[in-house]
Amino acid sequence: MTTATEVLDIALAIAFGALVLGQILSMVRLVMGPTPGDRILALDTMVINALGLVIVLGLQLGVQIYFEVALLIAMLGFVSTVALARFILRGDIIE
Predict the structure, then answer these.
(1) How far apart are CA 23 and CA 65, in angstroms?
(2) Could you give the CA distance from residue 48 to residue 26 in angstroms, rounded to a whole number?
(3) Hey, is 3 helix, strand or coil?
(4) Which helix (H) or strand (E) holds 66?
(5) 3-state helix vs strand vs coil in the chain, percent to 5
């Protein structure tokens, strides 16, 4: 019979593997994307996958500081995606 801790460890390992696979596939799209829009979406997806990896790592280690790091990554990822999209569409970031 498995305990709750073993089930949680297995679920975290599966989640970590899925996020790593998603990160690799997003990196392939970032490099091979035919349009700048595809590259921006791939970069945004990589930020979301990195966010998930940090959260899974925080759950695995039981350290709460990783959740604050995840908030910082989310904020920086949103701002950088918007700035890059505006730069590609308009040629400048600040009007």
Answers:
(1) 22
(2) 10
(3) coil
(4) helix 65-90
(5) 85, 0, 15
Q: Tell me the residue length of the chain.
A: 95
Amino acid at the residue 46: M
Quote the Cα angle for 23-27-32, to 5°.
Answer: 150
Are residues 44 and 64 in contact, defined by beta-carbon separation less than 8 angstroms?
no
Overall pTM surpassing 0.70 (yes/no): yes
Cα–Cα distance between 20 and 26 in angstroms, integer? Answer: 10
What pLDDT digit, counting tens, does each position of 16-33 carry?
Answer: 999 999 999 999 999 998
Domains of the chain in sequence order = 4-90 (1.10.287)
Place of tokens 């990196």: 27
